């Protein structure tokens, strides 16, 4: 027992020593909590040159981590292992984080560049008055298809995906809201539907799509579509636009039954250690020229009306990515379903994926 205690003591001493050394190294390089900004964002969702520019202008060191789903992001913030100063959740996640008291209010007086945000993207139901969030990007979920593989076949509808000629040609996003929403919309139900009979009906219809599904994937969908390994991908609009810049044989359509209109906003988690730097970064990103540069890199639609002046006219006039009012009226924003209903969506989606196997 004595040897065990001595061994444990030695481990603790070494651990504290390593922490002390790491802290000293960070301090010697100027990386203290007062001038370090820790950002939690989606993968490949910012121009790295802008991060460098922010560091050079402010002297603040940016630590950048990524997540691949709102649920994963919220879980990590709830657990509190890392004190993130900025996170970039979607609208329904922001609503949920507010309910669970995970966010700090945003001080608008420290973000004068908020004046450049189009008022259509301010004061939305998930965050009235933008008390807790600042617009970052927005977009849609739609269908990207390969004209070389599909030939003369035109895709205009979710229901077109059930065509038997599309066997083993479809890639789906690995997301419960997106896939269940597709099933619901194909039946002309709301993608926020809470009627369990409707949800079961949507899941059963998705089961019948199985022969046409090549894979249910995450970020790999970009590479697979780029390499012409599938005829169709259900994707977010920014992914579609980025691929279409590179390949002439890809087209993107918003299905006639409707789809998702989403918003990703910047927030400050309640455990943030440097809210001051978070406000500085938010204001920096909302500078019109910086916002335009970020938009050109990421490919999603910007809510910054002044940034549009620095962007290519062909891009901002493309109604597939900047839809008109008629199309926008057929789009829905995800609502916070509540824990029980969200769990039911996830359960049905898992059953669908198991059916695929």
Automatic annotation (TrEMBL):
What domain of life is recorded for the organism?
A: Bacteria
Q: Which InterPro entries match?
A: SBP (IPR006059), Sperm_putr-bd (IPR001188)
* Keyword vocabulary terms for this entry: Periplasm, Signal, Transport
Q: Cite the Pfam families for this sequence.
A: SBP_bac_8 (PF13416)
> Where in or outside the cell?
Periplasm
The protein's matches in PANTHER family, at most eight in alphabetical order, are given as: SPERMIDINE/PUTRESCINE-BINDING PERIPLASMIC PROTEIN, SPERMIDINE_PUTRESCINE-BINDING PERIPLASMIC PROTEIN
User: What is the protein name given in its UniProt record?
Assistant: ABC transporter substrate-binding protein
The species this protein was found in: Cytobacillus pseudoceanisediminis
Q: What is the lineage of its organism?
A: Bacteria, Bacillati, Bacillota, Bacilli, Bacillales
